[in-house]
Amino acid sequence: MSGRLTGKVALVTGAARGIGRAQAVRFAEEGADIIALDICRPVEHSTTPGATPDDLAETVRAVEALGRRIHASQTDVRDPGELDSAVGTGVATLGRLDLICATAGISSAAPAVALDSHRWQTMLDVNLTGVWRTCKTGIPHILAGGRGGSIVLVSSIAGLRGLMNVGHYTAAKHGVVGLMKSLAQELAPHHVRVNTVHPANTRTTMIQNASTMRTFCPGEDDPTQEQFENGLRSMHLLPTAFIEPDDIANASLFLASDESRFITGVTLPVDAGHCVK
After folding, report:
1. 262, burial (CB in 10 Å: exposed 0-12, middle 13-18, buried 19+)
2. In angstroms, how far is CA 40 from the centroid of its own chain?
3. By the 8 A CB rule, do 153 and 140 touch?
4. How many Å apart are CA 128 and CA 156, to the nearest integer?
5. How many other C-beta atoms can be found within 10 angstroms of the C-beta atom of residue 116?
6. What angle do CA 192, 91, 173 make, to 5 degrees?
7. Which end of the chain is more exposed for a tag (fewer CB within 10 A), N or C?
8. Among the listed residues 16, 147, 34, 148, the one whose alpha carbon sits nearest the alpha carbon of residue 91
9. What is the rounded distance in angstroms from the CA atom of residue 11 to the CA atom of residue 30?
10. What is the dihedral sign for C-alpha 9, 14, 17, 22?
11. What SS3 class is residue 35?
């Protein structure tokens, strides 16, 4: 099946690379035009390396190669003025808004009581409040169209269970689930569906970086890729170390398309069985 999103416009945050780029490209493959936002610089207190303007330009190239239109902007989801401007310009350029993928996020690690207040607050500002700001900015445009729509919020396996040494990340991702459930209630009368996707260890720079590798390999100052992948593999029931960004994009596509037209308020793990344990 193809053309599942023909004629629709999707807003994707964190679109310069990783899951966000995969969502933008997958949605474009199915006929959507894209509003692509990313901060395109490092975020303080984060171990996730920052995306670059060149990364966002590559997303633009990939979407345009599919014959779809894209409006891209270097935008910080923590800044309501930047968000309002970028989304407003994107909607004016592309003519409508039907779908939102709130995907932008950061990571870092430390025991909960060892976190300083700045690292805690930055995590919540990006991974929870940034999701809320994205919804607050985008939802009025969806409602103005009067056609209904779909919102996919990217949470994590950490939004479904507790994980050690990432209490701030876990709190933010649990908060995304609570926000989703409230929005699903509020927007149902407008035929707007809201769901969360919960990736396990996905092959992106959020996971594949030196700091995270050490977290998964306690006692190893410079773990090898093999040691790292063995640690990741132990978290999954299915025999894989990594889930691919395309796997998350495909789940997001299902939730964005009419194939899930009566699905709202659900948490969808894409986790190789992690949450079964």
Report:
1. exposed
2. 15
3. no
4. 12
5. 9
6. 50
7. N
8. 34
9. 15
10. negative
11. strand
Q: How far apart are CA 9 and CA 22, in angstroms?
A: 16
Q: Which residue is catalytic, options 21, 59, 139, 169?
A: 169
Using left for φ > 0, alpha for ψ between -120 and 50, and beta otherwise, residue 17 falls in: beta
Q: Mark whether 169 is an active-site residue.
A: yes
Whole-number Å distance between alpha carbons of 103 and 256: 14
Tokens of 271: 């986790």
Q: What is the pLDDT along the chain (277 residues), one digit of tens a residue?
A: 589 999 999 999 999 999 999 999 999 999 999 999 999 999 999 988 999 999 999 999 999 999 999 999 999 999 999 999 999 999 999 999 999 999 999 999 999 999 999 999 999 999 999 999 999 999 999 999 999 999 999 999 999 999 989 999 999 999 999 999 999 999 999 999 999 999 999 998 887 777 777 776 677 777 788 777 877 888 889 999 889 999 999 999 999 999 999 999 999 999 999 898 6
Residue showing tokens 């093999």:
226
Q: DSSP secondary-structure letter at 129?
A: I
Q: From 172, 87, 74, select the one nearest 125 (Cα to Cα).
A: 172
